[in-house]
Amino acid sequence: MAGHTLPRYALAFGLAALAGMVDALGLLKLGGLFVSFMSGNSTRMAVGIAGGTAVAGMAIGLIGAFVGGVFGGALIGKLAGRWRKQAVLATVLGMLILAALAVGRRGDAITFLMAAAMGAVNNVFQRDGEVSIGVTYMTGALVKLGQSFALALTGGPRFGWLPHLLLWLSLVLGAVIGAALFAQLDLSALWVACGWCAALWGFSLYLGPIGKA
């Protein structure tokens, strides 16, 4: 996460909170599957295949939707050039709105749209064509947190661990909020996620194109 300005850190933390919120809504609706945590879905898929249960098919669908979202977001971001962040966030917002509009209808379209949105949002932060800040998965952030603690104790940056901790806490806070909202609103809580995503998109417009401090 090194090399980013404070406003862009703030955007990353906000996106992690969005991912936590959306993932909590998906987890509670699907009863154990995720719309952003594909490592968990991969394990559930494998267990489902071994046990011959239907969960394997749903896990495969969610993984496919997530990868499709990453692919689509990457293409849109590439076409948008220096306005990649804003274009990708607009795409994520559009998919979340479509998912919210589909609430109450049968089928898996809602959760697949949620998974696609969570895939696409990982294109907001890139460096040299690679994700520089993963906002929907925290295993890497926790690994870097532990490594940064070790560096701080052995003469490295004293507070290099702080951004990784804040990123993880942001996702956890978003998930807590998502779970609380689900208890009251079910998947209609997606409208809250849409509002939060819209606010982050507005903040990205304030930050301006890539290259602006």
From TrEMBL:
InterPro entries: DUF1275
Keywords linked to the UniProt accession: Membrane, Transmembrane, Transmembrane helix
Transmembrane segments: 48-75, 87-104, 131-153, 165-183, 189-208
Short name of one Pfam family: DUF1275
Protein name: Uncharacterized membrane protein YoaK (UPF0700 family)
Source organism of this protein record: Sphingobium xenophagum
Lineage per the UniProt record: Bacteria, Pseudomonadati, Pseudomonadota, Alphaproteobacteria, Sphingomonadales
